[in-house]
Amino acid sequence: MGGATYARPVDATLQESPLARTRRARRVDRALTGRYPDARCELDFRNPLELLIATVLSAQTTDVRVNATTPELFDRWPDAAAMAAADVRDLEDVLRPTGFYRAKAQSVVGIGAALVERFGGQVPRRIEDLVTLPGVGRKTANVVLGNAFGVPGITVDTHVQRLSQRLGYTTSEDPVVIEAELGALLERREWTMASHRLIFHGRRTCFARRPACGACPVAALCPSAGIGENDPELAAAMLKG
């Protein structure tokens, strides 16, 4: 699985029919299912509010850092009303390890207030409502819908965007366009888990700077294969998780 065997140009997919691309995308997803049977949301949460807040806090930091921070956060401010009434300076002190803590503290207070004022203190179940909350975009909304409410959604984070482009599913840089194009390739019932599998693959194998192509389970299906480390042993040593 190394060398130039899979070194095809990324724009090769321009010659691919929509049906062929759909079939290939579903084969890729099945292969990633085999590689990552434990794929899941890696943020710790016990209810929709905790997942919503944790996802907002995960911007520009790691899930590990967020998971180390949220126990104190949710212990001190366990519901939307408590968050709405929180002293921003106290929140900043708790959120400091996550980076951009001032903006994140404002988002936590704003989300709490919006939930109390407009949604009875509960996290809404519609994407149209979720994206009206401070600091919440479609990515965060789809994380909450898919993992807290069981509503299928595609989460276009940096990993999903990168892999969707490398795999030839899209040429767009727009997350909304990528969400739509990826959604058209996969069965709706698979959207949430397919997102997790792509994220796992991006974190563990298909790295941004140098992917481990020689140890990739979908190299034969990837038009970008060959851009990273192609030696099987060296690539295997790169794998994480």
UniProtKB/TrEMBL annotation:
Residue ranges of domain HhH-GPD in the record: 57-204
Which EC class heads this enzyme's classification?
A: lyase
GO MF annotation list: endonuclease activity
- Provide the E.C. number(s) assigned to this enzyme: 4.2.99.18
Q: How is the cofactor bound?
A: Binds 1 [4Fe-4S] cluster.
Matches recorded under SMART domains: ENDO3c (SM00478), FES (SM00525)
Q: What keywords does the record list, in alphabetical order?
A: 4Fe-4S, DNA damage, DNA repair, DNA-binding, Endonuclease, Glycosidase, Hydrolase, Iron, Iron-sulfur, Lyase, Metal-binding, Nuclease
Taxonomically, the superkingdom here is: Bacteria
The UniProt annotation places [4Fe-4S] cluster binding at C206, C213, C216, C222
What InterPro entries does the record point to?
Answer: DNA_glycosylase, Endonuclease-III-like_CS2, Endonuclease3_FeS-loop_motif, Endouclease-III_FeS-bd_BS, HhH-GPD_domain, HhH_base_excis_C, HhH_motif, Nth
Give the reactions, separated by semicolons, that this protein catalyses: 2'-deoxyribonucleotide-(2'-deoxyribose 5'-phosphate)-2'-deoxyribonucleotide-DNA = a 3'-end 2'-deoxyribonucleotide-(2,3-dehydro-2,3-deoxyribose 5'-phosphate)-DNA + a 5'-end 5'-phospho-2'-deoxyribonucleoside-DNA + H(+)
Pfam families documented for this protein: EndIII_4Fe-2S, HHH, HhH-GPD
Q: Which cofactor does it need?
A: [4Fe-4S] cluster
Q: Describe its function.
A: DNA repair enzyme that has both DNA N-glycosylase activity and AP-lyase activity. The DNA N-glycosylase activity releases various damaged pyrimidines from DNA by cleaving the N-glycosidic bond, leaving an AP (apurinic/apyrimidinic) site. The AP-lyase activity cleaves the phosphodiester bond 3' to the AP site by a beta-elimination, leaving a 3'-terminal unsaturated sugar and a product with a terminal 5'-phosphate.
Q: Family membership, please give it.
A: Belongs to the Nth/MutY family.
Q: What is this protein called?
A: Endonuclease III
Organism whose genome encodes this protein? Cellulomonas phragmiteti
